[in-house]
Amino acid sequence: MATAQKSSNPASDDSNLVPFEKAVEVKLVEGTKDTFSATLTSDWCNIANIGFGGLCVSLILATSRAYFATTHPSRSLPDPIHVTAQFLSAIPAGPLTIQVQPEKLGRNYSVVRVSLRTATTIFTVAFVTQGNLATESGPNFETPKFELPDRAKCREVISKVFGTANPATKRCQIFCPPGGETPFWTPDLGRHRRDQWARLTDDDSRWDLLSLACIADWIPAMPLNYGYDKDMMGFLKTYGQSTISLTMEIRKDPKGAQWLLQRAVMNAAKNGRFDLDIKIIDEDGDLVASACQVNKLIPLRRAAL
């Protein structure tokens, strides 16, 4: 595999970005056991100042982890291993309250309901299963490792437009296999599929368990491959994209990996709604996480003449 190179992506040159570790900080509200506070900063939002869905799910995972560390430390359940998140309404930048409600407290696994909200509005509701990846045990069955594209032959996807529309993407470099008209897709995979290697632009940063929600959502919209890959601005002027839900199953802690492969397949795109079946794979060909994302493309109204 190729060694990491410093990004040549002009969209990634921004030293004022709030780092991921700071962006997912949550604090227990004084006098409570189940309520946390956080701040969603504008650089983790899109051009309309609406929160990046991947970070919002990472905040939910961070809250679940903090809840068990502070309220149920004796259970020794440090790892969120499954999340199902439903995005009810757009999340604006600013202070947030994150509330946790236990649904089932168990010895090996526990389930909590987490809501991301303000005083008047619930933006996202999620169910999180909390476990312990280090002590998890049970029968194992051998499955083939995933085949990986040669990263040395991949091309970096560089788009200043995408970075401007979605500032959160400035933190990530992506490299796709060559051979197509643009870096977004290749004939070998087809327009409905994408393999992309991802690394954080900061050479000292590494992927961790909480960041898996971000990498699951750091995939340029697959409909771009259908005629808009050379005209991203045209796509952004024509459609708005809204995430309806994100489900993720975490199989392995990436433990400081620099590179992870995102393998995404769009199985259907009809009536404006499309899905993404996502596998996150490490350099050893092992499955780190699997996710399913459901999105809606919304035609933007043109201003009246």
What would you say this structure looks like, in words?
Strands 1, 2, 3, 4, 5, 6, 7, 8, 9, 10, 11, 12, 13 and 14 form a 14-stranded antiparallel beta sheet that branches. This protein has a single domain, classed as Porin (Beta Barrel). The longest helix is centred in the N-terminal third of the chain and has 19 residues, at 53-71. With 305 residues, the chain is of the alpha+beta class. It is built from 5 helices and 14 strands.
CATH architecture: Beta Barrel
Using the CA coordinates, give the radius of gyration: 19 Å
Determine the structural class based on helices, strands and strand pairing.
alpha+beta
Q: Could you tell me the number of beta strands?
A: 14
Proportion of helical residues:
10-25%
Shape: globular
CATH class: Mainly Beta
- The CATH fourth-level homologous superfamily: Acyl-CoA thioesterase, double hotdog domain
Strand content: 25-35%
Which fold does the CATH topology refer to? Answer: Porin
**Biggest sheet layout:** 14 strands, antiparallel
Listing every helix as H and every strand as E from the N terminus to the C terminus, the arrangement reads HEEHEEEEEHEEHHEEEEE
Number of helices: 5
- Distance linking N and C termini: 54 Å
How many domains? The number is 1
Which consecutive residue ranges, at least 5 long each, have pLDDT under 50?
1-13
Q: Output mean pLDDT.
A: 87
